[in-house]
Amino acid sequence: MPHGRKILVGWRLVEGVAETRTLTEPADDLSPGELLPLGRRFRIVLVLGFLTALGPLTIDMYLPALPTITTDLHTSAAAVQLTLTGTLVGLAFGQLLIGPLSDAVGRRLPLLAGVAVHVLASILCVFAPDLAMLGTLRVLQGLGAAAAAVVAMAMVRDLFDGFAAARLFSRLMLVVGVAPILAPTVGGLVLGWTSWRGVFVVLAAAGAAIMVAAALVLPETLPATGRRSGGVRGTVRDYGRLFTDRVYVGLVLVAGLAMAALFAYVSGSSYVFQDEYGMSEQQFALVFAGGAVGLIGATQFNVRLLRRWTPQQILGGSLLAGVGFGVVLLLLAATETGGLAGVLIPLWLVLTMVGLAMPNAPALALSRHGEAAGTAAALLGAIQFGVGAVAAPLVGMLGVGAVAMAIVVFGGMLAATLVFFLVVRPHRLPAEHRRLSRLVRA
Questions:
Q1: CATH class (in words) of the domain with range 35-229
Q2: Do 35-229 and 231-442 show the same overall fold?
Q3: Which stretches are annotated as coiled coil (predicted)?
Q4: b/e for 73-94, b at 16 or more Cβ within 10 A?
Q5: For each of the chain's 442 residues, which pLDDT tens digit applies?
Q6: What number of H helices and E strands is found in the chain?
Q7: Domain spans of the chain, in order of start
Q8: Residue 136 buriedness (CB in 10 A; 0-12 / 13-18 / 19+)
Q9: What is the Cα–Cα distance from 2 to 38, expressed in whole angstroms?
């Protein structure tokens, strides 16, 4: 066989770990992205990374400002948390709408239109006179961010395949993990020299820069011959088929409920640590970053765990441990035992368990529908953000404090655990999942 490169055939990916069979084929058998000059390929990957970061930045950058917004707009904490819910709703529905649209009309038009909507909504947020207008505009921000995330992932699939795609997806997932750490820190710095409205100025500028970079760098990656023609009926039919799979739906709910525990922390932590424990906006940003480090560290450690245990074993163990740490968090918060450390330590432990659960539930769910991976992924993302949107305002409705946050965090983990063991029934998962686990451990 002539000299060439090793390519990946028959690969299966679970959080960056792929079991592969490789063979050498001629070097001209490359995916479209690999045929691009190195400099241009680097620029495309860089812009895709910025697009992927837009959603986390939009969600998290204004978190340190939530108490200030509550005071400035003369409203309640629960009402302000609905603005976070609005963003999550936009992200959820945006994925369902924009994903199929980009399959039908191409990638560039939905992408640029979506980011333009994000920029316009961000500018209008600067001048929002009341909470109702701010909440509406946050929904539009979420829709624009959804376009960026969905189309970026679709472009990766268009340009790369095999190992090249797996490696790039891993890098983009790292961006998704790092952005939530940096966003509140940047938001805290912005609040150090301006008001909460300045955060939206920064988001508008970031969105505009990303839109210009996308327009200049990213090509149309889906040719007319590759576009879907099934229309709305075909999309609805695909989604309907997914809802008939009990195990898939159960795993998606597990992922969504774990996300609910995470967003209970996201929506309530600024009030708990700033109002209840007297932290400054900058101190809160550092504490929030600490929780995010534990979450991301767990997702990376999951790769090592998969070499010894199956995804369902890791998922079940992390959910049970999360419930246990949630009980400790609730008891210490309710009895005010241990002060700040009594809340922070068990809370960070719960977030670590969420970090182990979040990659394994989607991996098991998506492995069931390889023939419709894009649609299955869109539905998964929509339900995750949708459940998170419901969880976010619950903390404020229960009273905003540490106990309220602990109740929702514990409730999300408990519900996820019950769904996993009673609906998914991990011991009855198809043999394909066990084969996948053996491949990963080999």
A1: mainly alpha
A2: yes
A3: none
A4: bebebbbbbbbbbbbbbbbbbb
A5: 333 333 333 333 333 333 333 333 334 455 565 666 677 778 888 898 889 889 888 988 888 888 889 989 988 887 887 888 888 889 888 888 887 788 778 889 999 999 999 999 999 999 999 999 999 999 999 999 998 888 887 787 677 764 455 456 556 655 665 676 678 778 888 888 888 999 999 999 999 999 999 999 988 887 777 676 666 677 777 788 888 888 889 998 998 898 888 888 877 888 888 888 888 877 887 887 788 788 878 877 877 787 788 888 889 999 999 999 999 999 999 988 888 889 999 999 999 998 888 778 877 776 676 445 556 767 877 887 778 777 777 877 887 788 889 999 999 999 999 999 999 888 776 544 444 444 344 3
A6: 15, 2
A7: 35-229, 231-442
A8: middle
A9: 24
Let me know: does 1 contact 8? Beta carbons within 8 Å.
no
* C-beta separation of 330 from 407 below 8 A: yes
What is the radius of gyration, based on Cα positions, of the chain? 22
Residue type, 203: L
Element (H, E) at 11: strand 4-14
Domain 231-442 = CATH 1.20.1250.20: yes
Report how far Cα 356 is from the mean position of its chain's Cα atoms: 14
- Long-range contacts, 40-49 (Cβ 8 Å, 24+): 43/217, 44/159, 44/217, 44/218, 44/219, 45/168, 45/171, 46/217, 47/210, 47/213, 47/214, 47/217, 47/218, 48/152, 48/155, 48/156, 48/168, 48/172, 48/218, 49/171, 49/172, 49/175
